[in-house]
Write a structure and sequence with these properties.
This protein has about 250 residues and is an alpha/beta fold. It has 2 domains: about 160 residues, 3-Layer(aba) Sandwich (Rossmann fold); about 80 residues, no CATH class. The protein is about 35% helix and about 25% strand. The longest helix is centred in the middle third of the chain and has 14 residues.
């Protein structure tokens, strides 16, 4: 498989703190690639550079052979990279359908925005309904988003991300705070999404990481300490030490 996304020596320093320090990273197209590590390892800072929220101190970010280092988030989104956050980013006062429809409308026209020409209305509606079905929220389509369970809220946010037609999806702890049943439902959804998208995720649920990922990158204190298949990571002594003996 070809590499769709990579970094070269990517670093982010906050004064003397090296939050991310010289990380080389490569993602194969059509795979699920997990990033794991203890709290404070630099995972979210790394994501923030990949999506333009933080400017790197050093290094490069390459997407489909194009250098996108330092581009603002809205430009990176238009190039085909979508991201979800740890903190939900939905419109609580709108229904599930209205949330997704607004996100879909924003992708239409020569100057994408909230308004859309009448000729596209049926197409926008059809796409919104398809996305709602893909994330398993059809029965909640007309429900106010603020009343959703935590797991359903996270799935709605993922729906908003895929509304922009991204090639690459970046998920920051997609199962955080979920019940066991909600986590299993989200795992199934991620497997389905992987049929159409390349996925990079930060995740603390090791069962999910080991069962879904083709490759795993491990960060500690801002540096990459290991990378490989789930079996290779499970047996890696440095990884075991980083997790203080926690079974992975």
């Amino acid at each position: 498989m070809s590499v769709i996304f990579r970094t070269e020596g990517l670093s982010k320093y906050f004064d003397s703190l090296k939050a991310v320090d010289g990380v080389d990273f490569a993602v194969e197209e059509g795979t699920i690639h997990a990033i794991i590590g203890p709290n404070g390892a630099g995972k979210t800072t790394f994501f923030n550079m990949l999506t333009g929220n933080f400017a790197p101190t050093a290094g490069k970010i390459i997407f489909r052979d194009e250098d996108i280092t330092g581009l603002p988030p809205h430009i990176i989104t238009r190039k085909g990279i979508g991201r979800s956050f740890q903190i939900s980013n939905i419109f609580g006062g709108l229904s599930v359908y209205e949330n997704v429809r607004v996100a879909v409308q924003a992708t239409y026209g020569d100057a994408p925005g909230i308004l859309v020409r009448p000729k596209w209305l049926d197409e926008v509606d059809e796409k919104a309904q398809e996305i709602i079905e893909r994330v398993g929220l059809t029965q909640f389509s007309r429900v106010q988003a603020a009343t959703l369970s935590h797991g359903d809220e996270k799935r709605l946010e993922i729906g908003l991300v895929i509304a922009a037609n991204p090639t690459l999806l970046l998920f920051d702890e997609p199962t955080a705070g979920m019940s066991l049943d909600e986590s299993h439902q989200t795992m199934d959804m991620l497997q389905d999404l992987a049929k159409r998208h390349t996925i990079v995720l930060i995740e603390h649920d090791m069962d999910l990481v080991m069962s879904l990922s083709k490759q795993i990158t491990v960060l500690q204190n801002g540096r990459k300490i290991a990378e490989g298949s789930p079996a290779e990571i499970r047996g890696n002594a440095l990884v075991q030490q980083a997790y203080l003996g926690t079974a992975i």
